[in-house]
Specification:
This protein is an all-alpha fold and 147 residues long. The protein has helices at residues 2-30, 44-73, 77-87, 93-96, 107-118, 120-123, 128-136. The chain is elongated.
């Protein structure tokens, strides 16, 4: 189990670094951590918010994997099992975060999503189809336009 956790932790860390680099790029491009403007799908505000959601959720999963690995190393099986249960919770930002973002997605975000998709079997998240759909989507779809 520990080898799988080490691999998953490294992949999550790489995905987090990619998402953080895209977040910083977007902040510079759009003028800060809270760009002004409308909240329509694909707007700078929604794109940055989607990136922040992806990074925060990836950071949380990395934390749970690190705890599971640490508890496993210490022989604290009950705590390790709980941490692993938390790491296996489906990331809520996929598709809600990805659907907010302008297309084309940034290269770093695309790579991070590919890395997360590759971890789907290990965690049993069930997000492969949502990531594939996000990568293929021609435009942002959330929030829906108001009539």
């Amino acid at each position: 189990m520990i080898d799988g956790l080490v691999h998953a932790g490294r992949v999550l860390n790489e995905a987090l670094a990619l998402l953080e680099s895209d977040r910083k790029r977007l902040e510079q491009q759009y003028g800060g951590p809270a760009p002004s403007g409308d909240g329509t799908a694909g707007s700078p505000m929604q794109t940055l918010y989607g990136t922040v959601l992806l990074a925060a959720n990836t950071r949380d999963h990395l934390k749970w994997v690190a705890l599971a690995a640490g508890y496993t190393s210490l022989g604290l099986d009950e705590r390790a099992d709980h941490a692993m249960e938390m790491a296996c919770l489906k990331p809520v930002d996929i598709p809600s975060g990805t659907n907010r973002m302008a297309r084309p997605l940034g290269e770093a975000t695309v790579r991070a999503l590919e890395l997360l998709r590759d971890l789907d079997d290990f965690f049993g998240w069930g997000i492969k189809l949502a990531i594939n759909a996000a990568l293929a989507a021609p435009q942002a779809t959330f929030p829906p336009p108001r009539d």
